[in-house]
Structures are given as C-alpha cells and as structure tokens.
C-alpha cells in the first residue's frame, strides 16, 4: 500500500457513486459556509450600526446635559435681573409721585 500523507484521505471505496456523494456533501458544506459567512457579515453590520446609534445617543445625552446647565444659568441671570428691576420700579413710582407734587406746586406758584 502507498504511504499516506497527513491530511490525505484514502481513496473512497465504491468508485464513482461514493465520489458523487462526497461531492454533494462538499456542495452542502460550501453552501452552509457561505450562509454562515453572510450571517456573520450581517451581524458585523448590525454591530457597526448599533455602535453608531449608541454614539449618537451619547452625544444627544451630552447635549441635553450641556443645555440644561445653560438653562439653569440663564434662569439665575433672569432671577438676578428681576431682583434689580423691582427696586428700580419702586424708584420710578416714587419719582412719578414727586413729579406730580412738583407739577402741583408749580401750578400753585
């Protein structure tokens, strides 16, 4: 008998029928491999899409946080301005009544 090399398969007994069966099995195996590779590629694409969506989501969360900090700061500024405006409004009222008094005195004079 001829010596076998590692990885070599012995010739199939039964000749062409066995060879045809082996060919059919190879075809099925190749088809399975192709489907498996296609599934892997689809999965990889889904992972890439998922990563992109996650990045967009994180960016939106960062934006929301940034804007809420800005809004809080603006609210504080508005409060401070209101605190300054209230005394000014009082002064304006007092000035109005003083002006009215002066007008009366002017008329009397």
From TrEMBL:
Name of the protein in question: ICE1 protein
């Amino acid at each position: 008998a001829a010596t076998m090399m590692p990885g070599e398969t012995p010739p199939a007994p039964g000749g062409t029928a066995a060879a045809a069966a082996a060919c059919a099995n190879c075809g099925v195996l190749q088809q399975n491999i192709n489907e498996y590779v296609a599934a892997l590629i689809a999965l990889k694409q889904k992972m890439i899409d998922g990563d992109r969506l996650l990045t967009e989501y994180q960016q939106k969360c960062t934006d929301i946080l940034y804007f809420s900090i800005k809004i809080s700061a603006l609210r504080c500024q508005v409060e401070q301005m209101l605190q300054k405006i209230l005394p000014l409004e009082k002064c304006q009222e007092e000035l109005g009544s003083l002006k009215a008094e002066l007008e009366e005195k002017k008329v009397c004079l």
